[in-house]
Every structure is written in C-alpha cells, then in structure tokens.
Inverse folding.
C-alpha cells in the first residue's frame, strides 16, 4: 500500500512539474504528454480506479505487452521515416514542428493501446476468415496511407517541374486514397469490435 | 487443447475471479483458458490443477490432431 501511494504521488508530481515546465514552451508537447500518459498507463489507471490495485501481470499479459511493444516500435520506426520524408519535401509548410512531433507521439500511444487490446482480447476470438479480412483491411489502409504521402509529393514535384497544376495526383492523394483509407479503417474497426465483443462471452458475473 | 477447467471449477463452486485470484492471474486469462484459446505454461497449468484439486492431465487434454 505504501509503495503504491509513493508510486502514484511520484507520478503525479513529476507529471505536473513536467507539464508546468513544458507549458511555457509548447502546449502541444504538454497535450501529447498527458494523452501519452493516459494511453500508456490505461491498464494501470483503470485498475487503480476500478479495483484500487495495480493490475496483475501474468504470462499472458507479459506476452501481449511484448507483442504490443514490438508492433508500436515497428510503427514508430516506419512513421518516423515517412515523417522525415514529408518534412524534407516541406509538405506541412507552416505547421509547427512541435505539433507534428506531438501528433506522431500520440498516434504511437494510440497504436500501443489498440495493439495491446488486439493481442489481449481480439486476436484469440477471431476465426481464420475474420483474421484474413483484418489483414486485407490493414494492408489496404497501409497502402492507401503511403499512396496519400506519395501522391502529395508527386503532385508538388509534377507541378513544379512542368509548370501546371497536376490534377491526377491531386485527386488520387486527396480523394481516392483517403476514401479507400477510410473504408479499410472502418472494415478493420468492424472486425476489431467483433473480436472485442466476442471476448466478453464466457465472462461470469461474480 | 481442450480443458475441463469449467467442470472442475463448478464442482468446487469457484468463480472465474476466485480461481484467477488463487493462481495469481487475470480473470481474462482464465476465460481464454476455459475457451481453449490460450495454452498455459507448465507452472500455470500446475497451479490450476492444484487449485482445482486434480491432476494436470485431468484438466488439460491435448488434441491428437
């Protein structure tokens, strides 16, 4: 009990201190920090609020945590490369760098959250067919996201090289690819929710 | 792998939560074990068997196929 209180007090004081220090410089970083804290510590926070104790870490949780961490690391690596390329081509123009980096960090936190719950609850409940659909949807989402980035870069390049406003990459990058991305994300979400819903079956009310 | 955890647990009148507490795992782990969607470690299987007052081979049945 004493250790837990010390841990919570330490976390709250350091978070507040960090927020106060960072708030003077960049509000986006503070927001990213708070959101990141909520996303990364959601299990602990939920358990403390709901059961007044830290969550149990068993073999299964350990396996799921490392899978989620691997997924998050991979995403962070790829997203960083894409972001560097986009910054190199000045796609964001006047957007503050703090906002871009904060957005990336929050997205990484969100990927961790989704990844953990996927391995923890969704994955064991998905049949072969649903898993196949999820893979297709995620692959399509990844491809359309890459298409958006590539089309923006190509649109700028073609417009600069040939001196006319390119329409093909503009429509591809701002209309077609986002529509495909939205559809594939909705498909993934539907499969995810289906798996999550199934995980509540077999739960006995104590 | 098939399990007879639910049957043995009911025989002792234990809830999923109580069994999870005894063996030191989350309730979700017990749920997935009962559904046969998670293979336990030898240590966990031993702990469950002991909590359910049975042998490991009585509770966890390996499918031949």
């Amino acid at each position: 009990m004493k250790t837990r209180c010390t841990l919570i007090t330490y976390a709250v004081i350091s978070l507040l201190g960090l927020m106060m220090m960072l708030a003077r410089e960049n509000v986006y970083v503070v927001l990213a920090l708070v959101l990141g804290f909520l996303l990364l510590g959601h299990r602990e926070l939920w358990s403390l609020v709901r059961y007044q104790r830290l969550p149990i870490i068993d073999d299964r949780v350990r396996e799921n945590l490392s899978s989620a961490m691997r997924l998050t690391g991979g995403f962070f690596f790829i997203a960083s490369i894409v972001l560097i390329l986009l910054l190199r081509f000045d796609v964001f123009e006047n957007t503050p760098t703090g906002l871009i980096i904060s957005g990336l960090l929050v997205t990484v936190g969100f990927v961790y959250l989704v990844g953990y719950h996927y391995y923890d609850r969704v994955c064991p409940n998905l049949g072969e067919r649903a898993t196949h659909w999820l893979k297709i949807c995620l692959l399509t989402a990844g491809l359309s996201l890459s298409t958006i980035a590539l089309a923006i870069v190509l649109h700028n390049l073609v417009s600069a090289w040939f001196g006319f406003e390119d329409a093909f990459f503009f429509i591809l990058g701002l209309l077609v690819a986002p529509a495909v991305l939205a559809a594939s994300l909705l498909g993934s979400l539907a499969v995810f929710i289906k798996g999550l819903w199934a995980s509540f079956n077999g739960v006995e009310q104590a | 792998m098939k399990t007879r955890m639910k049957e043995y647990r009911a025989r002792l009148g234990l809830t999923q939560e109580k069994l999870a507490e005894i063996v030191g795992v989350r309730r979700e782990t017990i749920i997935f074990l009962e559904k046969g969607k998670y293979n336990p470690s030898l240590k966990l299987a031993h702990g469950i068997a002991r909590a359910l007052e049975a042998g490991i081979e009585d509770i966890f049945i390996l499918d031949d196929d």
